[in-house]
Design goal:
The chain has 14 helices and 13 strands. By secondary structure, it is of the alpha+beta class. It has 2 domains: 214 residues, Gyrase A, domain 2; 174 residues, Multidrug efflux transporter AcrB transmembrane fold. Strand 3 and strand 4 form a beta hairpin. Helix 1 packs across helix 2 and helix 10 crosses helix 13. The chain starts with a helix and ends in a 6-residue tail after the last helix. 30% of the residues are buried. Keywords: Cell membrane, Membrane, Protein transport, Translocation, Transmembrane, Transmembrane helix, Transport. Pfam families: Sec_GG, SecD_1st, SecD_SecF_C, SecDF_P1_head. Belongs to the SecD/SecF family. SecD subfamily. GO terms for molecular function: protein-transporting ATPase activity.
Length: 446
Protein backbone atom coordinates (compact mmCIF):
# COMPACT_ATOMS: atom_id res chain seq x y z
CA UNK A 1 0.00 0.00 0.00
CA UNK A 2 2.86 2.36 0.86
CA UNK A 3 4.46 1.71 -2.53
CA UNK A 4 1.13 2.40 -4.27
CA UNK A 5 0.82 5.78 -2.56
CA UNK A 6 4.37 6.62 -3.58
CA UNK A 7 3.79 5.69 -7.23
CA UNK A 8 0.52 7.66 -7.40
CA UNK A 9 2.16 10.70 -5.80
CA UNK A 10 5.13 10.46 -8.16
CA UNK A 11 2.86 10.26 -11.21
CA UNK A 12 0.77 13.25 -10.07
CA UNK A 13 3.84 15.37 -9.32
CA UNK A 14 5.46 14.41 -12.62
CA UNK A 15 2.32 15.35 -14.57
CA UNK A 16 2.11 18.67 -12.72
CA UNK A 17 5.74 19.41 -13.56
CA UNK A 18 5.18 18.45 -17.20
CA UNK A 19 2.16 20.76 -17.48
CA UNK A 20 4.09 23.63 -15.87
CA UNK A 21 7.11 23.14 -18.11
CA UNK A 22 5.12 22.60 -21.32
CA UNK A 23 1.53 23.86 -20.89
CA UNK A 24 0.99 23.88 -24.67
CA UNK A 25 0.65 20.10 -24.58
CA UNK A 26 -2.11 20.21 -21.96
CA UNK A 27 -3.87 23.04 -23.80
CA UNK A 28 -3.85 20.97 -27.01
CA UNK A 29 -5.53 18.10 -25.16
CA UNK A 30 -8.13 20.48 -23.74
CA UNK A 31 -8.92 21.81 -27.21
CA UNK A 32 -9.16 18.29 -28.63
CA UNK A 33 -11.82 17.33 -26.08
CA UNK A 34 -13.59 20.68 -26.38
CA UNK A 35 -12.68 21.84 -22.87
CA UNK A 36 -12.73 25.63 -22.56
CA UNK A 37 -9.70 25.83 -20.35
CA UNK A 38 -6.23 27.19 -20.94
CA UNK A 39 -3.12 27.01 -18.77
CA UNK A 40 -0.99 30.17 -18.98
CA UNK A 41 2.60 29.76 -20.04
CA UNK A 42 5.54 31.18 -18.11
CA UNK A 43 8.27 31.32 -20.76
CA UNK A 44 11.90 30.47 -20.13
CA UNK A 45 14.17 33.46 -19.80
CA UNK A 46 16.72 33.35 -22.60
CA UNK A 47 20.09 35.06 -22.61
CA UNK A 48 21.28 37.27 -25.43
CA UNK A 49 23.29 34.45 -27.08
CA UNK A 50 20.01 32.55 -27.57
CA UNK A 51 17.53 35.39 -27.99
CA UNK A 52 19.88 37.74 -29.80
CA UNK A 53 21.08 41.04 -28.41
CA UNK A 54 24.14 43.01 -27.41
CA UNK A 55 26.91 42.50 -24.85
CA UNK A 56 28.62 45.77 -23.93
CA UNK A 57 31.64 46.32 -21.70
CA UNK A 58 32.35 49.82 -20.37
CA UNK A 59 35.39 51.09 -18.51
CA UNK A 60 35.15 53.87 -15.96
CA UNK A 61 37.69 56.71 -16.08
CA UNK A 62 39.00 56.90 -12.55
CA UNK A 63 41.35 59.78 -13.27
CA UNK A 64 38.44 62.02 -14.30
CA UNK A 65 36.93 62.04 -10.80
CA UNK A 66 38.42 63.80 -7.81
CA UNK A 67 37.68 63.31 -4.15
CA UNK A 68 38.05 65.88 -1.44
CA UNK A 69 39.12 63.08 0.88
CA UNK A 70 41.92 61.38 -1.02
CA UNK A 71 45.29 63.01 -0.63
CA UNK A 72 46.27 62.42 -4.25
CA UNK A 73 42.92 63.64 -5.57
CA UNK A 74 41.68 60.17 -6.41
CA UNK A 75 38.68 58.47 -4.90
CA UNK A 76 39.38 56.09 -2.03
CA UNK A 77 38.46 52.41 -2.35
CA UNK A 78 35.12 52.71 -0.59
CA UNK A 79 34.18 55.93 -2.41
CA UNK A 80 35.12 54.38 -5.75
CA UNK A 81 32.95 51.32 -5.07
CA UNK A 82 30.04 53.64 -4.24
CA UNK A 83 30.68 55.60 -7.44
CA UNK A 84 30.65 52.41 -9.54
CA UNK A 85 27.41 51.33 -7.87
CA UNK A 86 25.99 54.73 -8.75
CA UNK A 87 27.06 54.23 -12.37
CA UNK A 88 25.34 50.85 -12.40
CA UNK A 89 22.11 52.34 -11.02
CA UNK A 90 22.06 55.18 -13.56
CA UNK A 91 22.80 52.88 -16.50
CA UNK A 92 20.11 50.46 -15.35
CA UNK A 93 17.56 53.28 -15.32
CA UNK A 94 18.64 54.26 -18.81
CA UNK A 95 18.37 50.78 -20.34
CA UNK A 96 14.91 50.36 -18.82
CA UNK A 97 13.83 52.99 -21.35
CA UNK A 98 14.09 50.35 -24.09
CA UNK A 99 11.70 47.95 -22.37
CA UNK A 100 14.25 45.13 -22.56
CA UNK A 101 13.19 42.00 -20.69
CA UNK A 102 15.43 41.56 -17.64
CA UNK A 103 18.51 43.55 -18.76
CA UNK A 104 21.77 42.64 -17.04
CA UNK A 105 23.79 45.54 -15.65
CA UNK A 106 26.60 44.61 -13.28
CA UNK A 107 29.98 45.83 -12.09
CA UNK A 108 32.91 43.63 -13.09
CA UNK A 109 36.19 44.06 -11.26
CA UNK A 110 36.98 47.52 -9.96
CA UNK A 111 36.34 49.72 -12.98
CA UNK A 112 34.29 47.84 -15.57
CA UNK A 113 30.58 47.66 -16.21
CA UNK A 114 28.89 44.86 -18.16
CA UNK A 115 25.59 45.55 -19.90
CA UNK A 116 23.64 42.77 -21.62
CA UNK A 117 20.53 43.70 -23.60
CA UNK A 118 18.67 40.71 -25.03
CA UNK A 119 16.37 41.18 -28.01
CA UNK A 120 17.21 44.87 -28.54
CA UNK A 121 16.74 46.25 -32.05
CA UNK A 122 18.49 49.66 -32.03
CA UNK A 123 21.98 48.96 -30.70
CA UNK A 124 23.43 52.36 -31.62
CA UNK A 125 20.71 54.21 -29.73
CA UNK A 126 21.35 52.02 -26.69
CA UNK A 127 25.08 52.77 -26.81
CA UNK A 128 24.40 56.48 -27.19
CA UNK A 129 21.95 56.55 -24.29
CA UNK A 130 24.05 54.46 -21.90
CA UNK A 131 27.29 56.39 -22.28
CA UNK A 132 25.90 59.90 -22.16
CA UNK A 133 26.46 62.24 -19.21
CA UNK A 134 23.71 64.84 -19.79
CA UNK A 135 24.09 68.19 -18.07
CA UNK A 136 21.01 70.41 -17.85
CA UNK A 137 21.35 74.07 -16.92
CA UNK A 138 19.42 77.33 -17.16
CA UNK A 139 21.21 80.46 -18.38
CA UNK A 140 20.07 84.08 -18.53
CA UNK A 141 20.84 86.87 -20.95
CA UNK A 142 23.23 89.76 -20.39
CA UNK A 143 23.44 93.23 -21.88
CA UNK A 144 25.44 91.80 -24.79
CA UNK A 145 23.20 88.78 -25.44
CA UNK A 146 21.13 90.28 -28.25
CA UNK A 147 24.15 91.63 -30.14
CA UNK A 148 26.05 88.35 -29.75
CA UNK A 149 23.07 86.37 -31.07
CA UNK A 150 22.71 88.76 -34.03
CA UNK A 151 26.42 88.41 -34.83
CA UNK A 152 26.20 84.63 -34.63
CA UNK A 153 23.15 84.78 -36.91
CA UNK A 154 25.33 86.54 -39.50
CA UNK A 155 27.85 83.73 -39.28
CA UNK A 156 30.42 85.53 -37.15
CA UNK A 157 32.42 83.44 -34.72
CA UNK A 158 32.68 85.06 -31.31
CA UNK A 159 34.41 83.90 -28.13
CA UNK A 160 31.78 85.43 -25.87
CA UNK A 161 28.91 83.22 -24.69
CA UNK A 162 25.49 84.79 -25.26
CA UNK A 163 24.11 83.57 -21.92
CA UNK A 164 25.55 83.24 -18.41
CA UNK A 165 24.97 80.54 -15.82
CA UNK A 166 22.30 81.07 -13.17
CA UNK A 167 23.22 78.24 -10.82
CA UNK A 168 20.05 76.34 -11.72
CA UNK A 169 20.94 72.97 -13.26
CA UNK A 170 20.13 69.27 -13.45
CA UNK A 171 20.65 68.61 -9.76
CA UNK A 172 17.56 70.74 -9.09
CA UNK A 173 15.42 68.58 -11.38
CA UNK A 174 12.79 66.45 -9.66
CA UNK A 175 11.07 64.91 -12.67
CA UNK A 176 10.86 65.24 -16.46
CA UNK A 177 8.05 63.90 -18.61
CA UNK A 178 6.75 64.18 -22.15
CA UNK A 179 3.67 66.39 -22.69
CA UNK A 180 1.92 67.76 -25.76
CA UNK A 181 1.18 71.41 -26.51
CA UNK A 182 -2.63 71.75 -26.20
CA UNK A 183 -2.70 74.25 -29.09
CA UNK A 184 -0.40 72.58 -31.63
CA UNK A 185 -0.09 69.00 -30.36
CA UNK A 186 3.71 69.25 -30.64
CA UNK A 187 5.64 67.12 -28.11
CA UNK A 188 7.36 68.98 -25.29
CA UNK A 189 9.30 68.03 -22.18
CA UNK A 190 7.81 69.21 -18.91
CA UNK A 191 10.23 69.84 -16.02
CA UNK A 192 9.28 69.71 -12.34
CA UNK A 193 11.96 71.25 -10.12
CA UNK A 194 12.77 70.48 -6.51
CA UNK A 195 11.77 72.92 -3.75
CA UNK A 196 15.22 74.52 -3.86
CA UNK A 197 15.11 74.64 -7.65
CA UNK A 198 11.62 76.15 -7.64
CA UNK A 199 12.76 79.03 -5.42
CA UNK A 200 15.79 79.65 -7.61
CA UNK A 201 13.69 79.45 -10.78
CA UNK A 202 11.19 81.93 -9.35
CA UNK A 203 14.00 84.42 -8.71
CA UNK A 204 15.42 83.91 -12.21
CA UNK A 205 12.09 84.39 -13.96
CA UNK A 206 11.18 87.38 -11.79
CA UNK A 207 14.31 89.32 -12.78
CA UNK A 208 14.12 88.28 -16.42
CA UNK A 209 10.51 89.15 -17.36
CA UNK A 210 10.50 90.06 -21.05
CA UNK A 211 14.00 88.63 -21.46
CA UNK A 212 15.45 85.38 -22.73
CA UNK A 213 16.22 82.42 -20.47
CA UNK A 214 18.06 79.64 -22.29
CA UNK A 215 17.83 75.96 -21.38
CA UNK A 216 21.12 74.22 -22.15
CA UNK A 217 21.78 70.51 -22.42
CA UNK A 218 25.38 69.31 -22.61
CA UNK A 219 26.57 72.85 -23.33
CA UNK A 220 24.21 73.48 -26.24
CA UNK A 221 20.98 75.52 -26.15
CA UNK A 222 17.89 73.41 -26.82
CA UNK A 223 15.22 75.98 -25.95
CA UNK A 224 15.38 79.78 -25.59
CA UNK A 225 11.98 81.04 -24.45
CA UNK A 226 11.03 84.60 -23.52
CA UNK A 227 9.91 84.91 -19.89
CA UNK A 228 6.37 86.30 -19.77
CA UNK A 229 6.00 86.43 -15.99
CA UNK A 230 7.38 85.03 -12.76
CA UNK A 231 7.02 81.25 -12.39
CA UNK A 232 6.83 80.34 -8.68
CA UNK A 233 5.69 76.70 -8.92
CA UNK A 234 8.90 75.20 -10.30
CA UNK A 235 7.32 74.17 -13.60
CA UNK A 236 9.21 74.63 -16.86
CA UNK A 237 8.72 73.37 -20.39
CA UNK A 238 11.33 72.56 -23.02
CA UNK A 239 9.86 73.14 -26.45
CA UNK A 240 11.51 72.51 -29.79
CA UNK A 241 11.19 70.58 -33.00
CA UNK A 242 10.76 67.26 -31.19
CA UNK A 243 9.00 64.18 -32.42
CA UNK A 244 7.44 61.98 -29.71
CA UNK A 245 10.41 59.60 -29.66
CA UNK A 246 12.95 62.41 -29.28
CA UNK A 247 10.93 64.05 -26.51
CA UNK A 248 10.60 60.74 -24.68
CA UNK A 249 14.33 60.09 -25.03
CA UNK A 250 15.20 63.54 -23.69
CA UNK A 251 12.89 63.07 -20.68
CA UNK A 252 14.52 59.70 -20.04
CA UNK A 253 18.00 61.19 -20.21
CA UNK A 254 17.06 63.92 -17.75
CA UNK A 255 15.35 61.53 -15.33
CA UNK A 256 18.24 59.07 -15.35
CA UNK A 257 20.62 61.74 -14.14
CA UNK A 258 24.28 62.22 -14.83
CA UNK A 259 26.82 59.45 -14.48
CA UNK A 260 28.91 59.79 -11.30
CA UNK A 261 31.94 58.61 -13.29
CA UNK A 262 32.60 59.01 -17.04
CA UNK A 263 32.59 55.68 -18.89
CA UNK A 264 33.75 54.61 -22.33
CA UNK A 265 32.79 51.61 -24.43
CA UNK A 266 35.71 49.18 -24.82
CA UNK A 267 33.97 46.06 -26.12
CA UNK A 268 30.81 45.30 -28.07
CA UNK A 269 29.46 41.93 -29.15
CA UNK A 270 26.17 41.65 -31.01
CA UNK A 271 24.30 38.40 -31.63
CA UNK A 272 21.57 38.40 -34.28
CA UNK A 273 18.16 36.95 -33.45
CA UNK A 274 18.46 34.36 -36.24
CA UNK A 275 21.86 33.24 -34.97
CA UNK A 276 20.45 32.98 -31.45
CA UNK A 277 17.55 30.85 -32.68
CA UNK A 278 19.98 28.61 -34.55
CA UNK A 279 22.14 28.21 -31.44
CA UNK A 280 19.08 27.30 -29.38
CA UNK A 281 17.96 24.70 -31.93
CA UNK A 282 21.41 23.11 -32.02
CA UNK A 283 21.62 23.08 -28.22
CA UNK A 284 18.24 21.35 -27.91
CA UNK A 285 19.25 18.81 -30.54
CA UNK A 286 22.49 18.09 -28.66
CA UNK A 287 20.51 17.58 -25.45
CA UNK A 288 18.11 15.18 -27.19
CA UNK A 289 20.93 13.13 -28.69
CA UNK A 290 22.73 12.91 -25.35
CA UNK A 291 19.50 11.73 -23.70
CA UNK A 292 18.99 9.01 -26.31
CA UNK A 293 22.58 7.76 -26.05
CA UNK A 294 22.43 7.67 -22.25
CA UNK A 295 19.11 5.77 -22.35
CA UNK A 296 20.44 3.14 -24.77
CA UNK A 297 23.60 2.68 -22.71
CA UNK A 298 21.80 2.33 -19.37
CA UNK A 299 19.16 -0.11 -20.63
CA UNK A 300 21.72 -2.23 -22.48
CA UNK A 301 24.08 -2.45 -19.52
CA UNK A 302 21.72 -2.57 -16.54
CA UNK A 303 18.40 -3.76 -18.01
CA UNK A 304 15.45 -3.09 -15.67
CA UNK A 305 17.38 -0.79 -13.28
CA UNK A 306 18.49 1.04 -16.42
CA UNK A 307 14.84 1.61 -17.36
CA UNK A 308 14.19 2.89 -13.83
CA UNK A 309 17.14 5.28 -14.15
CA UNK A 310 15.73 6.71 -17.39
CA UNK A 311 12.33 7.25 -15.76
CA UNK A 312 14.13 9.01 -12.92
CA UNK A 313 16.11 11.02 -15.46
CA UNK A 314 12.91 12.30 -17.09
CA UNK A 315 11.57 13.33 -13.68
CA UNK A 316 14.89 15.05 -13.02
CA UNK A 317 14.66 16.96 -16.33
CA UNK A 318 11.12 18.13 -15.56
CA UNK A 319 12.14 19.28 -12.07
CA UNK A 320 15.19 21.17 -13.36
CA UNK A 321 13.24 22.92 -16.11
CA UNK A 322 10.51 23.85 -13.63
CA UNK A 323 13.13 25.44 -11.36
CA UNK A 324 14.57 27.32 -14.35
CA UNK A 325 11.12 28.81 -14.93
CA UNK A 326 10.35 29.55 -11.28
CA UNK A 327 13.58 31.26 -10.22
CA UNK A 328 13.87 32.26 -13.12
CA UNK A 329 17.25 31.20 -14.52
CA UNK A 330 18.54 33.06 -17.57
CA UNK A 331 19.42 30.34 -20.05
CA UNK A 332 22.56 30.88 -22.11
CA UNK A 333 24.60 28.57 -24.31
CA UNK A 334 26.95 28.00 -21.38
CA UNK A 335 23.97 27.31 -19.12
CA UNK A 336 22.53 24.76 -21.52
CA UNK A 337 25.97 23.12 -21.69
CA UNK A 338 25.90 22.87 -17.91
CA UNK A 339 22.41 21.36 -18.04
CA UNK A 340 23.45 18.75 -20.61
CA UNK A 341 26.47 17.91 -18.47
CA UNK A 342 24.22 17.32 -15.46
CA UNK A 343 22.25 14.73 -17.46
CA UNK A 344 25.34 12.56 -17.34
CA UNK A 345 25.86 13.40 -13.68
CA UNK A 346 22.30 12.40 -12.86
CA UNK A 347 22.90 8.97 -14.38
CA UNK A 348 26.43 8.65 -13.02
CA UNK A 349 25.14 8.19 -9.48
CA UNK A 350 22.87 5.40 -10.71
CA UNK A 351 25.83 3.74 -12.43
CA UNK A 352 27.68 3.56 -9.11
CA UNK A 353 24.61 2.09 -7.40
CA UNK A 354 23.81 -0.44 -10.12
CA UNK A 355 27.43 -1.57 -10.38
CA UNK A 356 27.40 -2.38 -6.67
CA UNK A 357 24.06 -4.16 -7.10
CA UNK A 358 25.50 -6.40 -9.82
CA UNK A 359 28.41 -7.33 -7.55
CA UNK A 360 26.03 -8.23 -4.72
CA UNK A 361 23.84 -10.30 -7.06
CA UNK A 362 26.91 -12.12 -8.36
CA UNK A 363 27.82 -13.06 -4.77
CA UNK A 364 24.45 -14.84 -4.39
CA UNK A 365 22.41 -12.27 -2.45
CA UNK A 366 18.72 -11.67 -3.08
CA UNK A 367 17.55 -8.81 -5.27
CA UNK A 368 16.15 -6.89 -2.29
CA UNK A 369 19.41 -7.22 -0.34
CA UNK A 370 21.44 -6.35 -3.42
CA UNK A 371 19.47 -3.15 -3.92
CA UNK A 372 19.87 -2.21 -0.26
CA UNK A 373 23.62 -2.93 -0.26
CA UNK A 374 24.10 -1.17 -3.60
CA UNK A 375 22.71 2.09 -2.28
CA UNK A 376 24.48 1.75 1.06
CA UNK A 377 27.94 1.06 -0.37
CA UNK A 378 27.72 3.64 -3.16
CA UNK A 379 26.41 6.47 -0.99
CA UNK A 380 29.77 7.85 0.20
CA UNK A 381 31.16 8.05 -3.33
CA UNK A 382 27.98 9.70 -4.62
CA UNK A 383 27.95 12.20 -1.75
CA UNK A 384 31.59 13.19 -2.12
CA UNK A 385 31.41 13.59 -5.90
CA UNK A 386 28.37 15.84 -5.64
CA UNK A 387 29.94 17.95 -2.89
CA UNK A 388 33.05 18.58 -5.01
CA UNK A 389 30.85 19.48 -7.98
CA UNK A 390 28.83 21.92 -5.85
CA UNK A 391 32.01 23.53 -4.52
CA UNK A 392 33.34 23.95 -8.06
CA UNK A 393 30.04 25.46 -9.19
CA UNK A 394 30.06 27.86 -6.22
CA UNK A 395 33.59 29.08 -6.97
CA UNK A 396 32.77 29.54 -10.65
CA UNK A 397 29.61 31.48 -9.81
CA UNK A 398 31.28 33.81 -7.31
CA UNK A 399 34.55 34.59 -9.08
CA UNK A 400 33.92 34.52 -12.83
CA UNK A 401 32.17 36.57 -15.50
CA UNK A 402 28.47 36.46 -16.30
CA UNK A 403 29.02 34.06 -19.23
CA UNK A 404 30.51 31.39 -16.96
CA UNK A 405 28.01 32.11 -14.17
CA UNK A 406 25.22 30.65 -16.30
CA UNK A 407 27.15 27.40 -16.57
CA UNK A 408 27.91 27.39 -12.84
CA UNK A 409 24.29 28.02 -11.85
CA UNK A 410 22.83 25.23 -13.99
CA UNK A 411 25.62 22.92 -12.85
CA UNK A 412 24.88 23.61 -9.19
CA UNK A 413 21.11 23.18 -9.56
CA UNK A 414 21.67 19.95 -11.48
CA UNK A 415 24.05 18.56 -8.87
CA UNK A 416 21.57 19.11 -6.02
CA UNK A 417 18.61 17.62 -7.88
CA UNK A 418 20.56 14.67 -9.27
CA UNK A 419 21.64 13.76 -5.75
CA UNK A 420 17.99 13.71 -4.68
CA UNK A 421 16.63 11.80 -7.68
CA UNK A 422 19.38 9.18 -7.60
CA UNK A 423 19.26 8.42 -3.89
CA UNK A 424 15.55 8.90 -3.21
CA UNK A 425 13.40 8.48 -6.31
CA UNK A 426 15.44 5.68 -7.91
CA UNK A 427 15.53 3.82 -4.61
CA UNK A 428 11.78 4.17 -4.07
CA UNK A 429 11.00 3.04 -7.62
CA UNK A 430 13.21 -0.03 -7.31
CA UNK A 431 11.66 -0.84 -3.94
CA UNK A 432 8.18 -0.53 -5.45
CA UNK A 433 8.77 -3.09 -8.21
CA UNK A 434 10.74 -5.68 -6.23
CA UNK A 435 8.68 -8.68 -5.17
CA UNK A 436 8.61 -12.47 -5.26
CA UNK A 437 8.79 -12.41 -9.04
CA UNK A 438 12.13 -10.60 -9.00
CA UNK A 439 13.95 -13.55 -7.39
CA UNK A 440 12.96 -15.72 -10.34
CA UNK A 441 14.12 -13.09 -12.82
CA UNK A 442 17.45 -11.92 -11.43
CA UNK A 443 18.79 -11.52 -14.95
CA UNK A 444 16.58 -8.42 -15.32
CA UNK A 445 18.59 -6.72 -12.57
CA UNK A 446 21.98 -7.27 -14.17
Amino acid sequence: MKNSYFLITLIVVSLALAVFVYPQGANSIFRYFGISMSIPDKPFRLGLDLLGGTHLVYEADRSAVNSPVGGDGALSGGDWADAMQGVRDVVERRVNFFGVSEPLVQVSGSNRLIVELAGISDVNQAIELIGETPFLEFREETDQTRSILEAQGRGERLNEAPFVATGLNGRHLKRAQIVFDPQTGIPQVSLQLTDEGAKLFAEITKRNIGKLVAIYLDGAPISIPVVQNEIPDGQAVISGNFNPQEAKLLATRLNSGALPVPIKLISQQTVGASLGAESLAKSLKAGLYSLIFVAVFMIFLYRLPGVISIITLFIYILAVLAIYKLMPVTLTLAGIAGFILTLGMAVDANVLIFARMKEELASGKTVANSVREGFSRAWLSIRDSHITTLLSALVLYLFTTSIVKGFALTLGIGAILSLFTATVITRMLLGAIIGNWSEKNKWLFG
